[in-house]
Write a structure and sequence with these properties.
The protein contains 14 helices and two strands. By secondary structure, the chain is an all-alpha fold. This is Ankyrin repeat and SOCS box protein.
């Protein structure tokens, strides 16, 4: 993880970052705040000072309690800082990253940012989505990664504690929210099996089978987005189940699974034959996946796509906006 230095507490007392307000204003010319950009600079300054003060106060209380967070009002102060940072679009990446680090150090999850609900600090689902993008952008710019046991996760992939430690991608797929899935995939969320027996793509296909070929739009949209983000769907195969057939060592089990289990979905053209092991994957799509992988490794998704010297239509293709 790219190191982010948290503001250090002053032992024994809370920070007094706002005591110098008179001095700040006394040094300003009378008309210095007439311009909007100047007022915006001062908003950024005060917002930064408040978030830093909140972090220092929280750390002071935590230090005085043997490095154990007191939770309650002492911890919820961080969520006030989080809301202010979002409301005023705080641009100081180091401060926002330090805030995210402190939240994770106490909770081990970011579900109050990812999940709208009674615990959420955002007014509605729409504001929650905007806030998620705001913090995803900061986390990506700061190269943030977090440890959970022996595993390391980026901000976007940290498991959600109240959802059985499922990844945000899996939870969004279960919700059938293609809008949220698009956001997560654009920022490089990993589509992995987590602790479940099947990968998220298989879980969508299994749910589609329940609808007797009258498929819900949102689920189909989620499937199409996943097909843009991965080279091909890899199905869970228990080779021991087919042992009695004495199949060759190089037998295409993927083809057998998709034809036997998802034949109707294949016939309805929801899965291209090139994305499920029946035919080779298109070179163009493999190139997209490789370019995105390189950008992901350098914490450049999705904004790094716009820096590439390629035509606009290819940028849209790389950004998962086109099939």
């Amino acid at each position: 993880m790219k190191p982010v230095t948290n503001p250090q507490p002053v032992a024994g007392r809370p920070a007094r970052s706002f005591d110098n307000i008179p001095q700040i204003f006394n040094n300003l010319d009378r008309d210095s705040l007439n311009e909007r950009n100047k007022r915006r600079e001062l908003v950024e300054y005060f917002c930064t000072k408040f978030v830093v003060s909140a972090l220092r106060y929280h750390n002071t209380c935590k230090t005085n309690n043997g490095d154990v967070c007191l939770m309650g009002k002492y911890h919820n102060l961080l969520y006030i800082a989080m809301k202010l940072a979002f409301d005023w679009s705080l641009q100081d990446n180091g401060v926002v990253a330090a805030l995210l680090d402190e939240l994770y150090a106490c909770e081990g999850t970011f579900e109050r940012i990812f999940l709208a609900g009674w615990k959420s600090d955002f007014m509605d689902k729409e504001e929650n989505v905007h806030a998620l993008v705001f913090f995803l952008d900061h986390a990506t710019n700061a190269n943030l990664e977090y440890k959970d046991g022996t595993s390391s996760y980026r901000f976007i992939d940290v498991p959600l504690e109240s959802c059985g430690k499922a990844s945000p991608v899996r939870v969004v797929i279960q919700m059938g929210s293609s809008e949220m899935l698009m956001i997560l995939l654009r920022f490089g969320a990993r589509i992995t099996a987590d602790n479940a027996s099947t990968n998220p793509a298989e879980s969508i296909l299994d749910r589609l089978l329940e609808y007797n070929r009258v498929y819900p739009y949102e689920l189909v949209s989620c499937l199409k987005l996943i097909l843009r983000a991965v080279p091909q769907i890899t199905f869970s195969v228990d080779k021991g189940f087919f042992k009695h057939l004495a199949l060759p060592v190089d037998y295409n089990y993927q083809r057998k699974v998709v034809l036997e289990r998802y034949g109707d979905i294949l016939d309805d053209h929801l899965i291209p034959s090139t994305r499920c092991g029946i035919r080779p994957v298109e070179l163009k799509h493999l190139c997209r996946c490789k370019v995105r992988q390189m950008l992901w490794e350098n914490f450049e998704l999705p904004l790094g796509i716009q820096k590439l010297p390629v035509p606009v239509y290819l940028k849209r293709y790389l950004d998962l906006c086109e099939d």
